[in-house]
Amino acid sequence: MKNFLFTAILLLCVAMGSNAQTNTLKFNKDGKFKIVQFTDLHIKWQDTRSDIAFTCIKNTLEAEKPDLVVLTGDIIYSAPADKNFRHVMEFISQYKIPFALAFGNHDREQGLSNAELLKIAREFPYCVASDVENLTGDGNYTLEVKGGNDDKNKMILYFIDSNRGSLLEEQGVGGYDYIHLDQVNWYVKTSRTYTKQNGGTPLPALAFFHIPLPEYNLAAQNENTTLYGIRREKACSPELNSGLFAAMKEQGDIMGVFVGHDHDNDYAVNWYNILLAYGRFTGGPTEYIHIPNGARVIELTEGKRIIDTYIRLTNGSIEQRTSFPADYVK
């Protein structure tokens, strides 16, 4: 009996250690780290129109074998929220790749709050999403990417809840909500902490959320910027600017911002040396879409402020392969 208990405990410890190692994000031995961004799946429960989204996830993950999967919101689009969301989480976790998420404006509309959805996501062993308490929204957190040959932080990934609709409609402000001041302050404080730990030099960083910043429109409309990709609609950003982009510039760490929300946009544009990029709409025709679905691939190099990125379509073809900042200098 003692031998059985010892063996069981040993196996449990090995399994726990394996999961911890699996979910530790690290550059590989060649100094590379790959992220696949899926956005706006808009999955409807038992609706065959959603099948192409799952096909896209399958084809992309099998071809790219990334180090991290990121979902940037509007994951589910119908009740029952519990079954629908669990189905998506189960499908992604079967690939045994760490995955993170940021919520969109529609996820909480299907019968469960974002906090309840996040709790479900965290039940799955490869989920690395979390939440900082006492901040506006759900799913504000950071992920650290360690060095390929050491355990030092080499890159920071920020995930921010871009919230839902404007809370100031009675004051005449419509449209979408903005990222709130407490969230901006949390980012600034966290960024400064990492910079201090790094001897005063900002660590390279990326930010992921759902609704684009107002700067997306400014950048896309400016004739002096370099833009790659599809822009078929104006960015549906908040009407008010809460200053997150300015804070990013002041901290000097963020290299790129990656969002979703606007289904007919997948472009990337340089705005004051920060790459503002969309993912490619991943879902099927459960919502409006006028371009083939796919995913954005983001490749990072340890110790360098470079973003190599491209769009992979469900059929396997590659579009818009660029390297930031080299290809974005006008």
UniProtKB/TrEMBL annotation:
SUPFAM superfamilies: Metallo-dependent phosphatases. Pfam families: Metallophos. Residues 33-264 form the Calcineurin-like phosphoesterase domain. CDD domains: MPP_Dcr2 (cd07383). Coiled coil: none annotated. Residues 1-20 form the signal peptide. InterPro entries: Calcineurin-like_PHP, Metallo-depent_PP-like, PAP14/16/28/29. The keyword Signal applies. Keywords: Signal. PANTHER family: METALLOPHOSPHOESTERASE DOMAIN-CONTAINING PROTEIN (PTHR32440:SF11), PHOSPHATASE DCR2-RELATED-RELATED (PTHR32440). This is Metallophosphoesterase family protein.
